[in-house]
Amino acid sequence: MGKSLILFLSLFLAPVLGYAQTEIDCSLKVVQDSLLEVYSKKAWKFGYNHPNWEASWDSLIAICPNIAEAYQEKAIPFLKSGDYAKAFELEDKAVEIDPRRWIAYRGFLHCIFTKNYEKALTDFQLAEQLVPYASIMDHTYSFFCGLAYLETGDLEEAEKMFLKDIEQQKSRGKDNDIHFNSLLYLGIVQFEMKEFIEAEKSLRESLKYYSQLPEANYFLAQVLKATGNPDANLYFEKAKEYFNQGYSMNEDNEAYVNYPRQISLIEIGRK
Questions:
Q1: How far is CA 222 from the centre of its chain?
Q2: pLDDT 10s digits, 156-188
Q3: Rounded to whole angstroms, how far apart are CA atoms 235 and 219?
Q4: Interatomic CA distance for residues 97 and 100, integer angstroms
Q5: Is residue 216 a contact partner of residue 206, using CB atoms and an 8 Å limit?
Q6: DSSP 23
Q7: The three-state (H, E, C) secondary structure of 88-145, written as one string
Q8: How many Å apart are CA 78 and CA 54, to the nearest integer?
Q9: Ramachandran area for residue 14 (φ above 0: left; ψ -120 to 50: alpha; else beta)
Q10: How far apart are CA 46 and CA 258, in angstroms?
């Protein structure tokens, strides 16, 4: 990255800033945003599977090392390939620079990718203090806390978190649909707590929003089996049918990593 590019960027940014400059002031948000636009377009010409993806973000970091998004974007191929050590080195840098924006995302990665639930809870609890009632990856912070508590065996706290998650969704307006996976996980927690009536209600409500969800059909079948309801086999068959048809939890990253309690044909076959 030579002086010619710095001069080019100075000329590029001059009309935005209202004056010509010989050096780029990386402390200015307008400068950061303009640089991000330039380098994001450059990186996406190649895609994150190409070596020039990392090189593009390295070029931006060389100019302005205080742009959090550059580290977060650079981490993407490492996350997708499972090189979590390298990915979190970059994610940690993004959080260090801009915790309000990136700590919840790091909590999501701890929860879903590395299954480090203690770190996930720590990040989401701090995220809630920094930006209350916010969401990440289509879910509230409470949703991911619920997953963390479920996976660490604290079912009572998990139930509280999923109920809080659902209440937060309801507060957005009467026409707002509840996410089917919120109801799915609430039902799973209630099933594991042997609250079978509540579990059946939650799972049936999940199926109202997404009737082909294999996990909701499977865990409803488990609830019905536990209570001696002969309809259990019907829902086991539905879970198998929809799974084979390619239906899934519809979470953005499930192509790269399994979500808690995500089922396979092995689980369905065991009944």
A1: 27
A2: 999 999 999 999 999 987 777 999 999 999 999
A3: 9
A4: 9
A5: yes
A6: S
A7: HHHHHHHHHHCHHHHHHHHHHHHHHCCCCHHHHHHHHHHHHHHCCCCEECCEEHHHHH
A8: 10
A9: alpha
A10: 27
Condensed to tens digits (0 to 9), the pLDDT of residues 95-133 reads: 999 999 999 999 999 999 999 999 999 999 999 999 999
pTM for this structure? 0.88
Contact in structure between 35 and 60 (CB atoms under 8 Å): yes
Q: What b-and-e string marks burial along 87-122, b requiring 16 or more CB atoms within 10 Å of the CB?
A: bbebbebbbebbbebbbbbbbbbbbbbbebbebbbb
Beta strands 135-136 and 139-140 are antiparallel
CA gap 113, 258 in Å, rounded: 8
Given CA atoms 105, 107, 110, 115 in this order, what sign does their dihedral have? negative
